[in-house]
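Blinded run. Sample ID left blank on purpose so nobody reads anything into the name before looking at the predicted structure. Input follows.
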Amino acid sequence: MKRRLLVVLAILLGFALVAASCGDDSTDDAADDAGDSGTAGDGDSDGDSDGDSDGDDGTGDSGVDASDITAAFVYIGEPGDAGWTYAHDQGRQFAEAQTGATTVTVENIPEGSPEFDQAVRDFIADGADIIFTTSFGYMDAMEALAAEFPDVAFEHATGFKSNDTNFGNYFGRIYQARYLTGLAAGAASPTGDIGYVAAFPIPEVIRGINAFTLGVRDANPDATVTVNWTSTWFDPAVEGDTANALLEGGADVIAMHQDSTAAGEAAEAAGARWVSYNSDMSAFAPTAYLASAVWDWGPYYTSVIEQVAAGTYAGGSYWGGMEDGIVQLGSLADDVSEETRATIQDLTDQMIAGTWDPFTGPINDQDGNEVIADGEVPDDGALLGMDYFVEGVVGSAAG
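Blinded prediction complete.
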């Protein structure tokens, strides 16, 4: 009840803000790391920079000369997938332009494979100063390689292992943006039956499903989110089939934690709505598209490359949020109501200010047991290890 009251108050505040703006239909998006800000409907959230690098001398905004640095990127997929790898590659291009560093990539490297180890060793043999790897299953191999090559910097996306010298991990609080897309989805669903195409039952994915569901039910308290697991990060055929199964089961909105646009294309064909992930995929299913939770990796990659160039890189962990711009809300569909836009904007502002979090209690698990007490917010350890579904999710968090 308290969650609903908070959202109602947010809506009322949002109306006041809209009235004060003399009828302006746009709402400001989260500021990115470079200090820019967008609008909730502009869709410019693919990691591209609005400006050019600072010249031909290889120095970025910090004044650090990174022109002698080579940064290597190991990708689980291909940049053309419009999803996870695409977002990282946009960030790589941004960092290259900002710093003057040389960047190199390798694609389609399976997790836990000999190909991964060989790819990293090849990069090091060719003189790479920093290795970025972009999938969870690379973590253990990265830890071993960092110990073997102490003069090379290693950065691992989505993992939790690190040291305080040459091995770091990095991720973002994408659950914040997922909550906001949940508000849009809950308000847009006539039936309250929402489907979620999900990759693997790991805390990263579970946390996002839960935040999305909290947003859905704050907009539509009787709605449910049915989760179907695919056991793949990128397989358009499997993702499309899974989305179709949810649509045939009655879902009128499809969300996803996947790397392709297949779920959106299935929703488009079925006359349903779709929430995308990783980048703003509105062009791939324009009628179905509703909202997106997106990444902007560029400023982070820029910062790390400059640290390596300056000799100040020291490993550790990074988990940024909307206040850093690394996670953002992409464009909102034109038919998202002004009421929903105002609520989204107000809660975005609160998250950026650090005064509110989607996991503010009271929150129950899907069996009705209180897991987060009234007014409390879990610490990062609890969030990073989240292994249960919240009330309103249909499906098993065990996969």
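Unblinding after everyone has recorded impressions. The chain has eleven helices and 15 strands.
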